[in-house]
Design brief:
single chain; about 375 residues; alpha/beta; FAD/NAD(P)-binding domain; seven-stranded mixed β-sheet; about 30% helix; binds flavin-adenine dinucleotide; binds iron/sulfur cluster
């Protein structure tokens, strides 16, 4: 497993027996945190980066879904990402193409020919030596199979993403009344860790995000009671201390180990029914608002890239890598790398680290191919 990258760069590879001089630029697909860092890395290492983003703005899901603040410091998303975006936009070696998608790819490492389509339908062909896929994730649709939470039925059942959008506007209110809620419940693991719907994985960030949002709700509405219903809390690394203990001790958020089985309307409130698994007894509590902690699934763009570049998908549907824990960015296709949530649930730290690693490996490959072709 760990030798996969060596195979990719070995002098026996087909790519290194290519006829012409390998192309010296790298295509990055996806302008979210992972793709931005990959583009900055490639350019800082002296190669040309072509950064293709399907939407009309860079910034990825944190921008497109209007995240208010980011972990762990609850700083404004736009402020937090401004440095990275600024570096990419002004770097002379980064060529940003907004509203653009990849529709076709031919060739191999060192000499890919990719066809790009812009919003106006016009097609251009580009030659690149390596490709980094950073097409990210999409949020689980809570109306899809978890009907008992009533996301499309009750206005006051919302998702983490809806809550971020509200917080971005500086307030948290019940959608049904426009009034601040007195009692708010988060339900964890919606669409994750659920074998019945086929998502047999933990989405990694939602325990931290729910805890972060519960702090924000308590800051905005100090008298509100906030409950988090969880199977088990999964806080990674420093988040345990920075977010979870802070929510519990400083902000008096109530963590309830339990499974919510159903939400029904009762008067103008929501009755949350389930089981408190610590006490081993049924619970029924009235809430003004319920926030569903929806997980991550591969985005449509990620699935599209798997087809266009012939990258296999791993068991959970994300793009496969073949280096195990020691190489998280090399796909089984020589010359094609992956970064961020396209490869599985990732937080920002993971996504940025993978973007940097993918840039380094892509540039190392180009340098190696060039040495072989000159020598
Ligand atoms: C509600 C919520 C809040 C979160 N808050 C935090 C937080 O506070 N801290 C934290 O660490 N993590 C947070 N996360 C996780 C964070 O959003 C991800 O780690 C991060 O967005 C992953 O970055 P990415 O670049 O891999 O993917 P994305 O951000 O999804 O970006 C992918 C980009 O690729 C583009 N794209 C897709 N398909 C194509 C295509 N075919 N062609 C061209 N472009 C394409 C998309 O338009 C998008 O711009 C949160 C997640 C959720 C669900
Ligand atoms: S991070 Fe927490 S809420 Fe999200 S899937 Fe994992 S355990 Fe469930």
């Amino acid at each position: 497993m760990g030798s996969s990258h060596v195979i990719q760069l070995s002098s026996d590879s087909d790519a290194e027996r290519g006829t012409g001089m390998p192309n010296d630029s790298v295509l990055i697909v996806g302008g979210g945190p992972a793709g931005l860092e990959a583009a900055r890395g490639v350019a800082d290492l002296g190669k040309k980066a072509i950064l293709v983003e399907a939407r009309d703005e860079l910034g990825g899901t944190p921008y497109a879904s209007s995240y208010a603040t980011l972990t762990p410091d609850l700083r404004d998303t736009e402020e937090e990402m401004a440095g990275l975006l600024g570096d990419v936009r002004k770097h002379p070696l980064v060529d940003v193409r907004l509203g653009t998608r990849v529709v076709k790819s031919e060739g191999r490492a060192g000499e890919f020919r990719v066809t790009l389509t812009g919003g106006d339908g016009a097609q251009v062909e580009e030659e690149v030596g390596a490709v980094i896929i950073a097409t990210g994730f999409q949020h689980f649709d809570p109306g899809r199979e978890t009907q008992m939470y009533g996301y499309y039925e009750y206005d006051d059942v919302i998702t983490l993403v809806d809550a971020e959008k509200m917080m971005k506007k500086g307030k948290i209110v019940r959608p049904s009344t426009g009034e601040p809620p007195e009692r708010v419940a988060f339900i964890q693991c919606v669409g994750s860790r659920d074998r019945q719907i086929g998502n047999k994985y933990c989405s990694k960030v939602c325990c931290g995000i729910a805890s972060k949002q519960s702090i924000e709700i308590k800051r905005m509405l100090p008298n509100a009671k906030v409950f988090i219903f969880y199977i088990d809390m999964r806080m990674y690394g420093f988040w345990e201390d920075q977010i979870y203990w802070k929510a519990q001790e400083e902000y008096k958020v109530n963590y309830v180990r339990g499974i919510v089985t159903e939400i029904i309307r009762k008067g103008d409130r929501l009755l949350v029914k389930g089981e408190d698994t610590t006490m081993g007894r049924p619970v029924e509590v009235l809430m003004d608002m319920v926030i569903l902690s929806v997980g991550m699934e591969p985005s449509r763009g990620t699935i599209e890239m798997s087809r266009i570049f012939n990258i296999p998908r791993e068991d959970h549907g994300f793009l496969a890598t073949q280096g195990g824990p020691l190489d998280t960015v090399s796909t089984p296709v020589p010359g094609i790398f992956v970064a961020g949530a396209a490869a599985g649930p990732k937080d920002l730290e993971d996504s940025i680290s993978m973007g940097g690693a993918a840039a380094m490996k892509a540039v190392a490959l180009l340098n190696r191919l060039q040495r072989v072709s000159v020598g």
